[in-house]
């Protein structure tokens, strides 16, 4: 069965006329399908990284060795960490207060969450263009070097993973479209998302920043003039009644075919009802009188509802939302604050571990923690909407996977120790409900990484796992390995960038 992306006139006609000249030739809509045909992707991104100490989580019963290695402490700059471990976030011994400060807002979603610690954006070592920010934006979701440079900026040279998946879906569903939204209307300094440009390269992907324009594009222009579409619900009901009447006359094998097609019609009728409801219920409110902080919160809700409706109604199977980075006044700073230079750069994690941090450092770090907490609260609200949205026999996140990535590991241009959050099961693609810590034992491919000679598992493996889960036949993003070296301990080797990420599924 091909994925239903739109309730088109052709779809309705095919369903209604399935009994036409001999019911032995039922439409392909009723046949068994590959689970990848039902999977959906939601990619959510944010700017400027994490506060390392407030993200990392250790359960109360954790053995002491789980906390012995500290990447940012000078005594570990030349030492590898081979230790990998995980624990269940749903363990009944864990209370909400046991969750780290940044993960605590997601406590109610712990059963559908995988939180990773110890990945690293190693593919940036391949990139000769742009600054660390530009590289982070591009590699976070493409894991492929940029193709040009304009001062500190750079431009992606390959489609981001969401668009790779979109292009794969289009092979069997030519009408597929992606839903790409972004908060905070001013243009980002760097770009996250790229689509194929038709000549082997990539072009920036347009995103909708106005919820009302997005609503009009995806839901507000449904054509009710066509009599078949206007009476689609009645058409499907009549077809189902006819199936019911005819079924007893058919041989058992054909009855089974008919029952499968009837079940498909029931799903289609349900999706049609959702689609009609989407049109009348989801129109975003007028936010012209709101402050920009209030508008930010309102837009998150509007975009969340549209994504949920679009993916459950069959409008799309791929959606993106960024950047859920709140305004400074949301967490107690002046609206004109230069966040990047006054707060992000000065809160590099190293001073907290080498003894050089002063009171001003910890005060600035606290503001960055508060920003991260607000981001996690926004993410939790998005997940509330997705989990409340019916899809088939369950909710949206039974067949969808939500991936949350920040631009950097920390605000001072870090690509190492790069956290990721994954939600949902993606139709069995991952096993949620766990916190997973990865080893830090790859020889450094950058020649930097803030003095460390060993670093973590490539985040590109996470992207490969997602790609393979959606049926793409790929094992890397063009370069399977990158040379690494730890000169002071004489360690050299090829660092693996390809292959799926282990521990995502058990």
Structure write-up:
- This protein is an alpha/beta fold and 506 residues long.
- Helix 5 packs parallel to helix 9 and helix 8 packs antiparallel against helix 9.
- It has helices at residues 9-16, 52-55, 132-142, 161-170, 211-218, 227-230, 232-246, 252-281, 292-313, 339-344, 350-354, 359-387, 396-399, 460-469; strands at residues 40-46, 85-88, 113-117, 119-120, 146-150, 153-156, 179-182, 194-196, 202-204, 318-322, 390-391, 394-395, 400-406, 420-423, 434-437, 442-443, 454-455, 457-458, 481-486, 491-496.
- It folds into 2 domains: 40-66 and 74-219 and 291-496, Alkaline Phosphatase, subunit A (3-Layer(aba) Sandwich), CATH 3.40.720; 224-281, no CATH class.
- The model is unreliable at 1-33, 222-232 and 270-277 (pLDDT under 50).
- It starts with 8 loop residues before the first helix and ends in a 10-residue tail after the last strand.
- The protein has an 8-stranded mixed β-sheet with strand order 2-15-3-14-13-1-10-7, with helices on both faces.
- It is globular, with a radius of gyration of 25 Å.
Q: What secondary-structure arrangement, pairings included, does this model have?
A:
Blueprint: H1 9-16, E1 40-46, H2 52-55, E2 85-88, E3 113-117, E4 119-120, H3 132-142, E5 146-150, E6 153-156, H4 161-170, E7 179-182, E8 194-196, E9 202-204, H5 211-218, H6 227-230, H7 232-246, H8 252-281, H9 292-313, E10 318-322, H10 339-344, H11 350-354, H12 359-387, E11 390-391, E12 394-395, H13 396-399, E13 400-406, E14 420-423, E15 434-437, E16 442-443, E17 454-455, E18 457-458, H14 460-469, E19 481-486, E20 491-496
Parallel strand pairs: 1-10, 1-13, 3-15, 4-18, 7-10
Antiparallel strand pairs: 2-15, 3-14, 5-6, 8-9, 11-12, 13-14, 16-17, 19-20
Helix pairs in contact: 5-9, 7-8, 8-9, 9-12
């Amino acid at each position: 069965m091909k994925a239903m992306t739109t309730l088109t006139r052709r779809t309705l006609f095919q369903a209604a006329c399935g009994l036409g000249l001999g019911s032995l030739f039922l439409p392909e809509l009723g046949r068994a399908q590959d689970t990848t045909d039902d999977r959906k992707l939601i990619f959510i991104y944010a700017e400027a990284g994490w506060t390392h100490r407030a993200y990392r989580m250790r359960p109360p019963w954790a053995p002491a060795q789980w906390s012995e290695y500290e990447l940012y402490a000078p005594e570990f700059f030349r030492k590898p960490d081979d230790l990998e471990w995980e624990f269940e976030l749903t363990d009944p011994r864990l209370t909400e207060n046991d969750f780290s400060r940044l993960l605590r807002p997601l406590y109610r979603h712990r059963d559908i969450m995988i939180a990773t610690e110890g990945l690293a954006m190693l593919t940036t070592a391949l990139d000769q263009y742009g600054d660390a920010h530009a590289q982070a934006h591009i590699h976070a979701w493409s894991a492929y070097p940029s193709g040009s440079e304009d001062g500190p900026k750079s431009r992606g040279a390959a489609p981001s993973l969401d668009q790779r998946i979109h292009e794969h879906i289009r092979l069997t569903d030519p009408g597929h479209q992606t839903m790409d939204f972004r908060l905070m209307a001013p243009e980002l300094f760097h770009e996250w998302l790229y689509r194929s440009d038709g000549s082997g390269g990539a072009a920036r992907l347009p995103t909708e920043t106005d919820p009302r324009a997005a609503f009009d594009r995806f839901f507000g222009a449904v054509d009710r003039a066509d009599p078949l579409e206007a009476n689609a619900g009645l058409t499907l009901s009549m077809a189902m009644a006819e199936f019911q009447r005819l079924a007893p006359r058919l041989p058992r094998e054909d009855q089974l075919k008919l029952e499968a097609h009837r079940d498909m019609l029931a799903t289609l009728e349900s999706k049609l009802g959702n689609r009609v409801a989407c049109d009348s219920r989801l129109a975003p409110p007028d936010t012209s009188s709101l402050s920009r902080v209030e508008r930010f919160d309102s837009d998150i809700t509007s975009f969340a509802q549209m994504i949920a409706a679009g993916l459950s109604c069959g409008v799309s199977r791929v959606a993106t939302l960024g950047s859920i980075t709140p305004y400074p006044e949301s967490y107690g700073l002046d609206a004109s604050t230069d966040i990047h230079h006054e707060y992000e750069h000065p809160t590099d994690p190293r001073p907290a571990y080498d003894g050089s941090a002063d009171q001003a450092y910890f005060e600035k770090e606290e503001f960055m923690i508060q920003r991260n907490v607000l981001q996690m609260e926004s993410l939790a609200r998005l997940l509330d909407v997705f989990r409340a949205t019916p899809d088939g026999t369950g909710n949206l996140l039974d067949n969808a996977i939500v991936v949350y990535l920040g631009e950097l590991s920390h605000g001072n241009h870090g690509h190492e120790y790069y956290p990721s959050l994954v939600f949902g099961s993606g139709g069995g693609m991952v096993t949620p409900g766990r916190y997973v810590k990865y080893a830090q034992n790859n020889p450094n491919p950058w020649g930097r990484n803030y003095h460390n000679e060993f670093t973590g598992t490539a985040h590109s493996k996470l992207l490969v796992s997602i790609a393979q889960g959606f049926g793409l036949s790929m094992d890397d993003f063009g370069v399977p390995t990158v040379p690494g070296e730890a000169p002071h301990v004489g360690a050299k080797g090829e660092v693996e960038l390809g292959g799926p990420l282990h521990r995502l599924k058990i």
